[in-house]
């Protein structure tokens, strides 16, 4: 796996590289919460 140097290179690319997994995790967690609310609301 490639090592990322945070002091060199394109700042935007580095920030996106670290931010995208967090964004995906937040979206999945929100979807889980919405589905859970829908399922629990049916009963």
Number of strands: 0
Low-confidence parts lasting 5 or more residues at pLDDT below 50?
Answer: none
The assigned structural class equals mainly alpha
* Overall outline: rod-shaped
What number is the mean pLDDT? 90
Task: Describe what you observe in this structure.
- The chain is 72% helix and 0% strand.
- It is an all-alpha fold and 43 residues long.
- It is rod-shaped, with a radius of gyration of 17 Å.
- 0% of the residues are buried.
Condensed summary:
The protein is mainly α and 43 residues long. Helix content is 72%, strand content 0%. The protein starts with 10 loop residues before the first helix and ends with a helix.
Sequence-ordered SSE layout with sheet pairings:
Layout: H1 11-41
List keywords for this structure.
43 residues, mainly alpha, 1 helix
């Amino acid at each position: 796996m490639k090592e990322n140097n945070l002091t060199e290179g394109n700042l935007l690319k580095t920030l996106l590289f670290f931010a995208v997994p967090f964004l995906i995790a937040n979206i999945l967690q929100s979807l889980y919460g919405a589905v859970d609310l829908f399922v629990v609301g049916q009963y």
